[in-house]
## 1
Amino acid sequence: MSGSALFDTFARAPLAFERGDGSWLVADNGRRYLDFGAGIAVNSLGYSHPHLLAALNEQAAKLWHVSNLYEIPGQTRLAERLVASTFADRVFFTNSGAEAIEGAIKTARRYQFVNGHPERFRTITFEGAFHGRTLATIAAGGQAKYLEGFGPKADGFDQVAFDDVDAAENLIGPETAAIMLEPLQGEGGIRSFPTQSLRRLRDLCDQHGLLLIFDEVQCGVGRTGRFFAHEWAGVTPDIMAVAKGIGGGFPMGAVLATEAAASGMKAGVHGTTFGGNPLAMAVGNAVLDVVLEDGFLDEVSRKALLMKQGLASIADEYPDVIEEIRGSGLMLGVKCRVANATFNAALREEGLLAVPAGDNVVRLLPALTVTDADIRDGLDRIRAGAKAVSASLASAAN
């Protein structure tokens, strides 16, 4: 064997980090990087947040894991808090976003089954979606690059173009169980579903006896300036998958559902070994302590406006590099006129970390606790990166 002992499944940047503080990471060579990727929207409260550290350390000294064969008080508390702050009546805890999506799909299918429609198992999804890496969730996402080489696509998923609600309506048939979407697509290129589209989809589900599933794995938990992104539209789902930011860096996710939608999920029909263990629940509760504190989400919106205005100014300065600024809250996208990998590499050279996405976009997903000073610093680095790319374009033209 030569090279790494790891699977070659990641195209990794030649960087390794040894510690972090706030919005900053320190590489093993000592260089500091301003992180506007936050582990792809995972490190919602940045690095080494004192409240998260205290909760983790306190729980780690007591109990890490017990089976779901027993009561786990931290689960009950976190579930009650999520129910109190959302549309949901029931919660199931998972280890990841993909597992949460799987749970959401199973919940929808089981709902149809117990309500006398076992033939209803299909889910309508939208182009550009990213729902996870399991066999079912890559089928739900429908992207060819993730499906290739893994055998026949898992049955039960029908996809239409992004925001094509007419096509979705036309696809509804006797086997349709649910419609699933990300209110704000992340991997797909920071693309928002218009409020009118979300309302139409809600109406279609109500008319046809379908369940509406929102994937808020990336756009949820304060990322857009509301606790969940769909709140901006005033449209509520029947089921929602959550992960990433809810754990603040600790692996955890959740399926949230109404009482009716969860009615088929009885003892023995679904489960998880690690999901909802005491360590995860301690951290999840600590995250909510911060995110649900009075004024926190207002601050996210204020900081987002500061950042978006700065990005718009940079786009005006370098229209040869930047085509458009997209997104909501602290989930922003830079649509590039050059290859997004080129722009992302230029940002990294300036000591700023971002995340590539579809549709030739670079995602900016800073911690929700990012400071005004860090935003201004980040904008300076983004401007410098755009300047370097622009100069390179000019040099190539000559």
## 2
Amino acid sequence: MHIGAVRSDGASVVRVSGRLDAAHAQAFAEALLPVLADLSAAPVLDLSGVEYISSGGLRVLLQAAKQAQARGAQLTLTQVPAAVYSVLALSGFCTFMAIRAQD
């Protein structure tokens, strides 16, 4: 898994690639902490490079969404691959999170 963060147009964008599974969930959560703590920027996750997401990855996304909501922001997922989008939709994440699938 690879994680990188950039600031773009008033948003903190975290680009993630690889597998978001139990083995990488802790590192993923730790990488999101500074982004979620930054009150001056909207948190955005670019998942274009994610090939797989497990329940461990979903748990981190749920926690991140709750943290963003607690500070009055909404976590947005962008460039979500079709396979990952299917998991998010089946898990009900589309009901409380802004998710934009890949074109």
## 3
Amino acid sequence: MPKKLSNADMWPTLVQERLVEWGRCVNVQRLQQRITAADLCRRLGISEATLRRLERGDPGVGAGAYLNALLTLGMADEATPALKPELWRKAPGRRVRPTRQEQGATADADYF
């Protein structure tokens, strides 16, 4: 069964804008560094059709392909800065508890 392509209208505007920016960066840097599309495709392990979609900012292209292209062309740190550790580190001993309204009279209140 063929992969279902993503409809760009379903994605938030910010996501669409970032993907288009990343795609333009990949295209401009590839040309400035005089790397052919075929050569970059071999390095990334993707087809030329996927590279064309990536350079257009298509949201159907996997995030790994975008990040790999940015890294290969030397732009990963500028385009995707590392997250602050406090955003992803697990807070020890803290659980999210449902509010009293959420617990209410639902049968699943004791489940959590």
